Structures are given as C-alpha cells and as structure tokens.
Amino acid sequence: MASTVIVGAPVEAQVVADVPPALEDVGVDEHFDAQVPLDLEFKDEQGRTVRLGDYFKPDRPVILTLNYYRCPMLCGLQLNGFLQGLKELAWMPSDQFEIVTISIDPLETPALAAEKKQNYMAKLGREGAGAGWHFLTGGEPNIRAVADAVGFRYAYDEETAQYAHAAALMVLTPDGRVARYLYGIEYPASKLKFALLEAGQGEIGSPLDQLLLYCFHYDSTDRQYTPVAMNIMRLGGGLTVSILALAIGLMWSRDARLKKKFMKRMSDT
C-alpha cells in the first residue's frame, strides 16, 4: 500500500498527529552536510564484501537509494521513475556519477540483489552502466547506520511482513556528505543533473517542503489503497492543497536558480 503525506514545516505537527501509529517512526529527517559512514561493509550483487567508501571517487557524486528488493509496490514505482529519469539523462552511471542502492531488509541476499540489478540494467539499456549502479545487501547494524546518517526512518510491520518507508533519493558529495534530497516517484533528468552538478562541486542544499510517499500495507489482491491510506490522503483538504502549492512554488524557484547557475558555469567554461 502507498499513501501520500504532505509535510510542511508550519504544519508538520498537525499532519504527523493524524498518522497511524505504525507510521510514526517513518519519514525523512533532512541531515544536510551529514557524513555517511564510508567504512561500513556490505555485500555486493556478486556476494563480495565491499566498503561503502569503495563507490566514492573524487569529483564523482553518488546517488543513494534505500529500498528493499521484494517490496510489493513503492520501491518498484520509485526505482522505475528513477530509471526513466536516467534514460533521459545524457550522463551515465560509472562515467559522471555512481548509484548505490542498499536493501533495508537484512534478510535479502546478494542473489536477489543480482536479479534486481540485471532487471534494471536491461531496462536502462546502456552498455557499461552496470559498473556504476551497485545493489547492496548487509546486516541490520550497518543498514541502520547509513539510514540514520541520512535521516531515513523506516519500520518493519510484522503483521504484513513489509517495511514502511518513504520514497526519497539522497544525493551525496564525492566525499560522502549529504547534499540534496529528492522526493517522490518521478525524477526528471533536469532535476537529477542539477542535483549531481551541485553535489559534485561539494555544494550543500537546503530544506524544502516534502512530498513523501509511504509504502505500507499494500493490498496486492485488490490492487488499491486500504481505507487507512485513503484517510491519510484526505487529511487537511484545502490545507493539503495549500501546502502542495507552496511546495511546487519553492521547487520552481529553486529550479530557476539552479538553471541560472548552470548556464553561468557553462558560459564561464
């Protein structure tokens, strides 16, 4: 199940207060400029032990995604949206940037990660991109350490054997600091490029109103939202519309600034 929660600084308490108890510990706390622990070990899709820092190189930013490979809905929607943005992006993983996807489920295996990677590399259709998109698995302590560093809060629901989590990408600087957060299930190439440009130069972003999509209790039989999710999406009425309009305005303003900055850099080179 997926449900949408709008979180704006002035009304955060109002929205969070109406969230079901199972979702109270789920969300994203923006930790701009926080250092990701690069010495932590994981298993790559080949079953080899790797350090997170192995994927950080000078002048090459990293996009971090926290998902799990057996997620029944949101992870697929998010990664498919991300994949579409990558297809439209002239840059390619392994050339201008790296992508690291870490499973938040410690029970998932390198074999499952390899299957997921093969699927996405086939869809992306770019020779050599696999060298720059890494699908990792690991133990609970190391997964939590990375998630805590970037402020990604998720929770396991024993009743459904699913994880509740937000849809977010974290863009990191070449030395592993959090530069920007991108939310939702659509990631246009222009947003990806501007975020990578800034992160690649070590520039750190600033908080924006968040549009978060949560994965929880998806009814695979009916293929629809449960009543709990629908109640969350109905929260606020006009208040929700106002928050969304504000968030869109902020994003448009930021994009305009980024475009101006990008054009200036291009003219200076």
General description of the model:
By secondary structure, this protein is an alpha+beta fold. It has a domain at 30-209: Glutaredoxin. Helix content is 36%, strand content 21%. It has seven helices and 13 strands. It has helices at 12-17, 74-88, 110-124, 140-150, 189-200, 227-233, 238-268; strands spanning 2-7, 27-28, 41-43, 49-51, 62-67, 98-103, 133-136, 152-153, 155-157, 162-166, 168-172, 178-183, 210-215. It starts with a strand and ends with a helix.
Helical/strand content category: alpha+beta
Mean pLDDT: 79
Task: Tell me, briefly, the overall form.
Answer: globular
First and last CA, distance? 48 Å
Q: What is the class of the domain at 30-209 in the CATH system?
A: Alpha Beta
Q: Are there runs of 5+ residues with pLDDT below 50, and where?
A: 1-17, 209-244
- Please state the oligomeric state of the protein chains shown: single chain
The CATH homologous superfamily of the domain at 30-209 is termed Glutaredoxin
The amount of beta strand, in percent, is 15-25%
Number of helices: 7
Reported CATH architecture of the domain at 30-209: 3-Layer(aba) Sandwich
Largest sheet: 5 strands, mixed
Percent of residues in helical segments?
25-40%
String of helices and strands: EHEEEEHEHEHEEEEEHEHH
CATH topology of the domain at 30-209: Glutaredoxin
